[in-house]
Amino acid sequence: MCGFAAVFGHIFPIFSGLKGGKGVGSLIGVLLALFPLAFPLCLLVGVAVITTTGYVSLGSITAAIALPIIILILPRLGLINPNLSLVVFSLLVPWIIIYTHRSNISRIRNGTENRFKKAILFGKKN
């Protein structure tokens, strides 16, 4: 619950007229603090997408989408204890991250989204 509040508060801060960030920075903090085994796996997914496409927003979205999959796999491997609040958090977060990145998604679809070309290691840079 506190992790969700941190991410949601980053996106909709009351002191800034409910206009904040996209929630990825605070999500990284929550993952590091509460789910340290899930963080490197989500990071790996995000970095793989960024180094292939150059789209940081797509890497963030993909990492968020990977979170519930990772959270469902880790207990089956015996690496973390299954926890309902953890599963609920991991299922809600991707929807929030997708919502905050909707303008980025639109720009990617239109071909106008900026790319981090220096990060592209495995795809086409043009």
UniProtKB/TrEMBL annotation:
InterPro entries tied to this protein: G3P_acylTferase_PlsY
Protein name per Swiss-Prot or TrEMBL: Acyl-phosphate:glycerol-3-phosphate O-acyltransferase PlsY
Keywords: Acyltransferase, Cell membrane, Lipid biosynthesis, Lipid metabolism, Membrane, Phospholipid biosynthesis, Phospholipid metabolism, Transferase, Transmembrane, Transmembrane helix
Keyword presence, Ion transport: no
Keyword Metal-binding carried by entry: no
Transmembrane parts of this sequence: 27-48, 55-74, 80-99
GO cellular component: plasma membrane
One of the record's GO molecular function terms: acyl-phosphate glycerol-3-phosphate acyltransferase activity
SMART domains xrefs: G3P_acyltransf
Any one GO BP annotation for this protein: phospholipid biosynthetic process
Protein's organism: hydrothermal vent metagenome
Any Pfam family: G3P_acyltransf
